[in-house]
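Consider what follows.

. . .
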Amino acid sequence: MLKALRESFIYVFLAGIYIGLVALLMTYADKIFGKVDSIFSGFAFLTLFSLSALVVGGLLIGKPVMLYLDGKKKEATFKLIACGVWLFLFLLIALSVLWLK
């Protein structure tokens, strides 16, 4: 169980780094690319959204799905719940930082 908790923390931590990088990109997109009003800005946003779903989904759900398909349903469920709890704790930390500012 300790190994599963550690692995799920690592997956959520990596997802958090990715989410932070995407947030930085979205925050400074106007400064990086300038003001762009074209179909390509919408295309880029939706592509980034799809890529984010793939990356974060792969990090947080990939391993539990593989375990479930291998017949390790209890371990898969535990890892999925652990990822959800870690992600919720990361959210609470982010909201706390925002609230304190």
Q: What stands out?
A: DSSP finds four helices and no strands in the chain. Residues 35 and 41 are 10 Å apart (CA to CA). The two ends are 37 Å apart (CA to CA). The chain has one domain: 2-100.
